[in-house]
Amino acid sequence: MPSSSARCLSALPLRRARPLLGTYVEIIVRDAPVPGIARTFARAFAAIEQVHRLMSPRDPSSDVARMNAALIGRPVKIHPWTDEVLAAARHLSEISGGVFDVTCGPGHDAPGWRELNRRPGGRVCRLASVTVDLGGIAKGYAVDRAVAALQEAGVRAATVNAGGDLRSFGDEPHSITIRHPASPGCLIPVGWLTTGAFATSANYLDAPGAGRLRRPDGRRLWTGRSSVSVHAPTAMIADALTKVVAAVGPDRSAPILRRYGATALIVTRSGRITCIDERGEGNHATRAAA
Amino acid sequence: MSRPGFSWTIGAAAAVIASTSGYAAEYLTIEQAQQALLPGVRLTPAPIQLTSSQRAAVAARAGTRVRSPALRAWRSARGDWFLVDEALGKHEFITFAVGIDSRGAVTGVEILTYRETYGGEIRRPAWRAQFTGKTVASPLKLDTDIQNISGATLSCRHVTAGVKRVLETYALVLRSLP
Questions:
Q1: Is the pTM above the cut of 0.95?
Q2: Residue numbers in B near A18 (CB within 8 A)
Q3: Could you tell me the CA-to-CA distances from B130 to B18, B114, B173 in Å, in that order?
Q4: Interface confidence (ipTM) of the complex
């Protein structure tokens, strides 16, 4: 019987997918030591599951549910991963002037993100009756943790794709496609990814009005039914920045993207494309796709 | 090495070539999934047909229809089970596998194949002009090259419902088999 490692060697890239985080999470390993590859996949998927356990609002034992259930002013001990996400969320709120906000509250007078107080020792408390929702950032973070697990296991090149939030590492550029917002079955190649993350937010699968964007005045805003894609060093930041770009548009988001070393693409349903590239040019419109 | 992490190509293209064919991904064969979910366990096929009352009981508990009475099931001598089932979304067609160990614990869920087709929606004349060589009447060719698709989040609720159906089948029918 041929050894499983010899069989695997000729079968790289290896692809696995599981239903997690409410979507399909796909892991493609392109270059890795083959002995123990099954355990490598298991560890990466386990990291995804861990993020889900910590940040799912529906699981009463998750950090998010516990934060939201705690009395105002009562500190709650959270996992270091949750703390890392909250720290990044706060920075995003500061940089975006509150456009990115992982809280929603009963009133819209004050930005809710200021009511989340991170304490030493991995504790957080709510200073007002706001609800924490990490849905706009947790999926990207899960991708980053899975990537870390793969790298720790010695994988040299791979891609993790959680429902369209993806991150790659390794040497081989590979084509990234997005869905045309007017026809989601149409896949449009947009570029070549070597390292970093790529996230897309769009509502072409949702009812109109869905989304968790926030303007400083509390109103939700979404740029029509366009698709917004962001490339950034990490999937967590790419995921979060798609919401910022969609909320404030290309011109105002250009400096925010630049702070994070990110670039972005907006595709409208009519096929009009706007690129926000590393030169920071907003509204750099190019020809229509269709 | 200062290769950029990402190179946009879309701005430079003369026209965007969008794929009109459906997309398919093959992740694991049944044998590979068996190895992944129940490593080292010797499995033999267990061709089980559900009776109509069993189908009704499973459907009632799971909240979804049981599309076929014929189970695609494998079992080990000591009572591990490996089951393959399908989930249908509006545009997605997925086969998946569930591993259950001899104590009744789920060892995992793996997607075997993923297929999506949106062919019926692509009819607008403006689209046709781009796709020289392809006609509307062309049969859908499923693209099985690895596509790294970044898009709005597809819900896996159909697979989740399918897994629940599989687990109810195990609880109601398989667990008590000798």
A1: no
A2: 108-111
A3: 8, 27, 54
A4: 0.86
